[in-house]
Amino acid sequence: MSILLPLMRCASLHAGAKAAALGRLQRAGLPVPDSVVIPTGVTDGDWPG
Amino acid sequence: MEEVLTWAECRAPSGLIARSSAPGEDGATASFAGLYTSVVTPCTAGRVLEALREVRASASSPVVAQYAAARGLAPDGELAVLVQPVLRPALAGVLAAVVRAGACVGWRIEAVRGLAGPLVSGTQTGEIHIGRGPVTDSVVPSSQAFLPLPGTREELELPPGEWTTAPTTGRAMLRAKIAGSCAGVLHLRTPAEWAKQQVLLPDQREDLLHLAVGAAQALSLEQIDIEWAITTDGPTVLQARPLARPVKDATASTPPAGGWGGLAAVPGIATGSPAARLGPETPPEGAVLICRALGLEAAAALLGGPAAVVSTTGGPLSHTAIIARELGIPCVTNVPAALDQIPEGMVLEVDGPSARPPPSLPHARRTGRTRTTTPPS
Fold first, then answer.
1. Whole-prediction pTM
2. What letter does residue B102 receive in the DSSP assignment?
């Protein structure tokens, strides 16, 4: 299962305010950079290898 | 980590930028502007992991805790990390606007060529556009000696003095000389053809104002602050957040007799305080802080309770000017001679966009200027 959140699915609880705002802009059709989010709670131990 | 690198493959020829995304940042009354770390990194596993750690670690930095306390908030403790390809923009900057009935009724744009990093960190003053509705009231030019751009691996290996292609918004290609590079960022000398040209053109300004309206509507905001970039593909919103405090009266002023002029990032009057340079020691509470750039060090010093801030560079939309506005600390930026000419210990009167010794206080208060006197013996 993927650790990364696509911007489209970002909510402020786990993705933070900046990513959530960009996600809303993307859903509204505004140009934003292609982005992914590593949500809160992910630690170095969650990265295999 | 492989997942990030796989995602970045084909998307990020000039590397990635890892940025903070904390639950409590970019709020309606507290922005945390510039207090968390952003890191530009090449797409290699070790460097990306290092960048993610650095961004996450900034959640527990002392300055974040101090700022949160000053704003009556609990620090977030942990944050998400936003990972984006580094763009190679022709122009970039910040836009602050009040949006009503589908139009920007009051707005201010600061623009630079290349990446906006120096503009938001206060080391470069951008070209300033100010207007109301469809009317542009003023355009204040700025001089920009270097263009910061993300470099490709090949460019970063070139020695200073070599040439490469600078990004433009049209089809024309323009060559620029490499001045050097640092941490994956290439610094090009601004081509002579651009030195006297306006940075942001009227049609580009219109596009940005339309974007601001769309963003404000999407986020249900009446006052918005946007970081933007313009690449060959057009304008892009890099970040959008509530404008915690609108910017007022940030026009350049003529220096008063015996004083210094600049840009009023935070209008207001502060008098009778000794001037103190930004240094390793925190300036005394109530001092007027004199600094070169409005960077993170200046943000930390702002939380120590200075009476006012005067900087040699930067503009009203730089991160630390935003923090000063939120804290209600009078702030004058872009006073080039501040460090050379204002002696430490001098009593300063900061009043809007300039400075001088104070015989005619009512006049100064009315016109928004900053003045100085020698300290009482």
1. 0.89
2. T
